[in-house]
Amino acid sequence: MLDTWTLLIIDDCAADRKIYRRYLLKDPHQSYKILEADCAEEGLALCQKERCDVILLDFCLPDMSGLELFDRIQQEIFKTSVPVIMLTGRGDEEIAVQVMKRGALDYLVKQNLTQDVLQLAVRNAIKQSCLQAQLLKTQERQRLIATTALRIRQSLNLEQILNTAVAEVQQLLKCDRVIVYKFAPDTDGKIVASSIEPYRTVALCDRVGVGDKGTRRQEDRGLMTREEFSPSPIPYIYELGLCNCVNLKEQFNTKANLVVPINLRNNGNSTPKVWGLLIAHHNSGERHWQTDDTEMLNEVSVQLAIAIQQAELLAQTQAALAKEKQLNVFKSQIITTVSHEYRTPLTSILAAASTLGKHSQQLDEPKQQRFLGIIEQKARYMSKLVDNMLLVNQLELEKPKFQPISVDLLQFFSELLEQERETIGDRHEFIFKITGNHHGFWGDRGLLQQIFINLMSNAIKYSPDGGNVEFHLIGKESEAVFYIKDQGIGIPMADQENLFQSFSRGSNVDTIPGTGLGLAIAKACVELHSGSISLSSEVGQGTKVTVSLPKICPTN
């Protein structure tokens, strides 16, 4: 069955209107309801009375020109553009240009008008109108969804997110109520948010939970409501007594309900985690859910899932941080260390950047490169500081997963030593010694690299006058032992006890930059390998740090 489109003909010539009507009623592809007016005022009255899909407008009318009438129709009658096809008895190109500039969709000359030409022009106008309407509808839908998403994601409190979501979706879909149902791993799940009005309760599916009166009812008509008096304006929330969550979506799927899943990202897994259901309900009158309704609910569900995941991550982080007794001290130490350690490199970066900006034309190439080198070096130092801060936070508060693989220690440490050689100056000399059997070792490459880098960095940093830095790898039957020894400033005995704690440094470091995180990071990585780390040092004689790791590490 063809859709019927309303078409208005405004023309003072009755004979012409009769021809247009005959042509259009013979169109096998469209069905029309045709209205007629013989002057501009009558045409305006009809436009005000009934929405028209297309208007055929004669350029010459007895009471005003077609262009004037076109402007009034667009400005006074319709909020959105209505396709207008202008008709004239003269093939005047200037008139055509004026008409098209004003926004008319097409221009036809009466003398050249045939049945096929008119039918095609009107069909194209209807098609254009439909496309324009769909575009406006899509834009408005996206605007509403964006506004809804913004309001949902304004909070990181899960309860507030859910309550905002159901209220916003109810307004968006103009439905009776909206419900968020959360699945539970070991139970039936429950309603966690509802837009139901105060003093009303809701019962879902075949069974409902218990209200504050301790009563239980059976319902068998899908999503229903019943009036009850409540001592509080807070709506009742009923738990579902369903045993099989797999069939839950089907049980919600009555004609009154529109149901979409709430899917969370599942730790990189391509299969999402189904958190629950977002349910729109309407039973105050017959409601035929449209495709747009489903698409909007799905898009809101995606935004709700993001907000839920953010809120859950925040809650998990807060719970983990709350367990740490020294969290406030830890934060204070981070702020103090960062503010202190950032000041010097930032000053150097700003000074170098300012010099380049103001005097780049006067500086030769070597000097420009030197200033750029300062900026790069200090930026790398700051980046390393941030990395260490993040890593120590992870090691102390989250305990990263230990992932051992087979490691060729000789090759592994040889490559790391070569990398270090490329970055140090001429004042230091590396000595690499290997003894015993270093085969058959299993460890976490990332953690091993952190141990080596932090210990080697300390050895170089706290040997400002240069000297030998020794790395000894000793392979034993059941363990691998390595130590790094320097000829630096050493560590006072009184400071050695606390050096493996975060932010602890020797009292004799003077102006040598550092955060006091290197040994703490190394110790945490060693302990994840179920190994041990020890330190021996003497002021002015250097420091030796020894690490022992079992070759076959137990998985955590």
How would you concisely characterize the structure shown here?
By secondary structure, the protein is of the alpha/beta class.
Protein topology:
Blueprint (H helix, E strand, L loop, with lengths): L3 E7 L3 H12 L5 E7 L2 H10 L4 E5 L7 H12 L6 E5 L4 H10 L3 E4 L5 H38 L5 H16 L3 E6 L7 E5 L5 E4 L20 E4 L20 H5 L4 E10 L2 E13 L9 H32 L4 H33 L5 H34 L6 E3 L1 H15 L4 E9 L4 E3 L1 H17 L5 E9 L3 E7 L7 H4 L21 H11 L3 E7 L3 E9 L6
Return the domain count: 4
Strand order of the largest sheet: 2-1-3-4-5
Task: Give me the secondary-structure category.
Answer: alpha/beta
Q: Provide the CATH topology of the largest domain.
A: Beta-Lactamase
Number of helices: 14
What share of residues is helical? 40-55%
CATH architecture of the largest domain: 2-Layer Sandwich
Distance between the termini: 69 Å
CATH class of the largest domain: Alpha Beta
Shape: elongated
Can you summarize the main beta sheet?
5 strands, parallel
CATH superfamily of the largest domain: GAF domain
Mean pLDDT: 79
Describe this structure in words.
The chain is built from 14 helices and 18 strands. The protein is an alpha/beta fold. It folds into four domains: 4-139, Rossmann fold (3-Layer(aba) Sandwich), CATH 3.40.50.2300; 153-321, Beta-Lactamase (2-Layer Sandwich); 327-394, Signal transduction histidine kinase, dimerisation/phosphotransfer (DHp) domain (Helix Hairpins), CATH 1.10.287.130; 405-550, Histidine kinase-like ATPase, C-terminal domain (Heat Shock Protein 90). The strands form five sheets. It has a five-stranded parallel β-sheet with strand order 2-1-3-4-5, with helices on both faces. Strands 13-15-16-18-17 form a five-stranded mixed β-sheet, covered by helices on one side. A hairpin with a 3-residue loop joins strand 15 (467-475) and strand 16 (479-485). The longest helix is centred in the N-terminal third of the chain and has 38 residues, at 115-152. The chain starts with a strand and ends in a 6-residue tail after the last strand.
